[in-house]
Design brief:
Layout (H helix, E strand, L loop, with lengths): L15 H13 L4 H8 L3 H13 L3 E3 L15 E3 L5 E8 L2 E8 L4 E8 L5 H18 L7 E8 L1 E3 L7 E3 L11 H9 L3 E5 H12 L9 E6 L3 E7 L2 E2 L23 H10 L10 H4 L4 H26 L3 E5 L4 H12 L15 E3 L6 H15 L2
Parallel strand pairs: 3-6, 6-9, 10-13, 13-14
Antiparallel strand pairs: 1-2, 3-4, 4-5, 7-8, 10-11, 11-12
Length: 378
Amino acid sequence: MNSRGRAGGTALPLDEDEKRIMRCLRLSGPASRSGLVGTLGFSPAKLTKLSQRLLAIGLVEEVEDTETQGRGRPAIPLRIAPGAGYAIGTTAHKGVLDIALVDYAGSVIAQSAGPFHDHDPRALCRAVRTRILAMIDRHNLVGARFLGLGIGMPGLASSPDGEHWRTVPELWGNRDVAIRGMLEDMLALPVWIENDASATALAEYYLGSPTDRDATMVAILLGYGIGAGIIADGRLLRGAMRNAGDIGAFYPIDQPRPSPVDLLALLRADGCDIDSVADVGDKVSQHQAVVDAWVVRAADQLRLVVESALAWFDPGRIVLSGPLPRDLMVRLAERLNASGISRGPGSTFMPPVLASRLGGTAITLGAALLPIHAGIAL
């Protein structure tokens, strides 16, 4: 693995108009040149010139439209070229290290999850490197263009440049660690780090259903704790210390919280032998009253967060994401939608609260998209 600099890896620099084309194709899928002209407002001549450069450097490719009928030469749509580059995402949580490898189009090539129980950040760096190299070798990608590594960090940045992070007790806890520099030195790749909720928002933004995509959206992550990621007008909103969306502060850890960890504790207190959220669907048949009560309480607790998000960001949608079984996430979303959420007098637009379809993979996939997003970000 090698790099041509922290900011861009081996990606080629794009001007703003080229980035607009790439964002449009990434969010909406393949499009004809005439369709891009209509969407972006470019002249046909300008769009032709821009698309020729993107084709020449291999970031887009032409794809035959098998559905085109009629006489004459059919329009040939453009799409993101999957082989233009590759990116890796990782996150560590509750004794597990997750890694995902994606191509430039955002399609998953491989995912793996393995145990990790070390509190030494250098041990984390070594584990990430070992597993990435094995994954690259297994998929015959040695020598391919790698854009970088993204990390969805379960914790808070302690420096505005994102170099230093504090994290959960299962990792290095409240120690102030310059983890990005460690990883860049060990991997010889550029590294992007965002908190896990921001990584989740990026996954929901790019990988959610095309019909649900909005330039402004909020993802509420119910994971180890509670957090929110915000996409505002296509930009990942970070804040002064990269900790925007730290809504867990609303829910003191010594009190009941709308988190999966809280639900597991309640189930164990009720006599359920359960250690993982993944077992919620299989082991709770005798404890359904506990789950039902938690859904009611958690939705009521999340209502203020949803109303605050509506007031502050005017999102087109709000997504509940996390490792809980989808049926539970759907129940939470339905209860929130039925709870009479208020935007104040005079408001006529009320976006739905949706349950994510990405499940527990959202953090790692969003992390893998960080290097790709960096190349086309506004």
